[in-house]
Amino acid sequence: MLQHNISIFLDACKHYNYSKSTIGAFTTRLNEFDVFIQSHHVQSIKAITYQHLMDFMISRNASHHVKKIRVWTLRQFFHFLKLNNLVDMNVALKLPYPKLEITEPEFLTLEELKTILDYFHQQTASVQGLRNLIIVMILSFLGIRLSSLRNLNIQDVILPDSLLRVRQKGYVSRSVPLPQIICIYLYKYLKTLDMNMGPLFLSKRKNRLSARALQYIFDIAENELDITKHLHCHLFRHTAATQINQTAGLYITKSLLGHRSSRSTERYIHLDGTLYANYMRCHFYHEIMEVCNA
């Protein structure tokens, strides 16, 4: 019953450059909603009630995560329908988000990060080793997302201006300042590639480095180092957010992480009460340069 309206909505999302993952989530949940509505013998879209939405949200013993995505999807979908006069009112407007259990994410201490950087620095004699060190530096100093890291191209590195062009959610591009130490290693790495265009981080088969291959690199390091925390890209993002916030404050941290809302940034930072005035002069990477240049 809803397939035509779902199709129109998804086309609009594509037009407004919603990410592939967002459109995929919308598609999955709206198809589930269509099946649910048909099973309740609802004859028209205008006959859908708030109670239908509430029943769908908790149907099939949905987890908190699934409930949250369902609410988000229905709010977006019915907002679109109301804007286009396909329904008389947005019945999803007051649909509540489920209360999720708040967990405290982990982050790396400076000592742990120094240990990890030292481990990868010892492998820079090979191209893959140099690549891995740069990856860890970018993740832990700049806090970019895994998807943004994988999508980096050679032409996104602007060494004369010490900038890195990063693509984030919604296909939005932004320029991130590169610390000098990353520029030094990027210069060495780019010389070994001898290419002007294409993926920045390549596998041994000359393909764009996959998320699975990257996690395998972290798993090996985790097994060889005396670190109890599970190494993954999001751990480095939390680490970067925490350290940048301590030296630069919430506003700069929010900008570097690419967040639209400060509330999103606050979930990433772990304060120890120490703040410093000048970000670029006092950034924590200066404390680690000796390790990388040893």
How is this structure best described in words?
It is a single chain. The protein has 294 residues and is mainly alpha-helical. It folds into two domains: 81 residues, Orthogonal Bundle (DNA polymerase, domain 1); 183 residues, hpI Integrase, Chain A. The chain has 14 helices and three strands. It has a three-stranded antiparallel beta sheet with strand order 1-2-3. Helix 6 packs across helix 10. The longest helix is centred in the first third of the chain and has 20 residues. The chain is elongated, with a radius of gyration of 23 Å. The termini are far apart. About 3% of the residues have low confidence.
Tell me the layout of helices and strands.
Elements: H1 3-15, H2 20-39, H3 50-58, H4 64-83, H5 110-121, H6 127-142, H7 146-150, E1 157-158, E2 163-167, E3 173-177, H8 180-193, H9 211-224, H10 233-248, H11 250-257, H12 262-266, H13 279-282, H14 289-292
Antiparallel strand pairs: 1-2, 2-3
Largest sheet: 3 strands, antiparallel
Fraction in helix: 40-55%
Distance between the termini: 66 Å
Mean pLDDT: 84
Q: How many separate domains make up the residues? A: 2
- Numbering strands along the chain, what is their spatial order in the largest sheet? 1-2-3
